[in-house]
Request: fold
Amino acid sequence: MGPITAEDCPIQVFAPPYERFSDGADGIFTAGQAPAGCALVWWLVDGQRQGPDFDRLRARPPGVPLVIMLPPAREISRTLPLLNYVMSLHPRSVLPAVYLGTPEHVRLVLSTPPESLAGAITRYLGRRGLFRTSGIEREVQRIFELAPEVPSVTKLARRMYASRRTLGRHFAAAGLPVPSHWLQFARVLHVCLHLQTDESAIFRIATRFGYPDGFTLSNQMKRLIGYRPSEIREYLGWEWIVETWLRKEGAVGQG
Reply:
């Protein structure tokens, strides 16, 4: 059996060990939640025919990143009915398939952290319907910005020019996990992205982010997201990690 083609299967799955694209997208859509480290790759071939693909991808489970592959320039006119709307799908990347449509390039896309992780996560959580006010949105973003250098919620509150009690009231009023939980997760998430791209010993990465040792980091990660550092290295991306934590916190938003 030969490799699957974009014509036969325009929506494909990219999953660990990230060696090839495969079919099986139906399983992701029916699962209702993001499998660890899985992404969808959509080969845009014919805008007239792929309208149902667009609608389906717009309703994909939260936490599943999307990479869109464009056809060669000579065929781009066939995609025009959808091309102007693809950014509304919030893809991780849009790539010219003729040059970059390989597993190696998509792996690089998934393993590359956003230029501003705090901004990307805040936008993502906003689309998930977690923020009731712009004020709480700014506070969450600030936590992710400060997490690599602030180990405690007391120091966090000081850097945010608020008391712990005031911050706690803001998050309680918004129906969100307490600030200390956000800070613990934000610290772990920054570590996760380094683990996916940095082959340094786990204890070195742990101490770099303010943990006393790798054992402490491992236990914290297991408690917050259910994975240990060695397991995180087997997967790519950050959206599924966010979703895993949200489910554990019971704060899944509106989607």
Remarks:
- Residues 179-197 form the longest helix (19 residues).
- The chain has a mean pLDDT of 93.
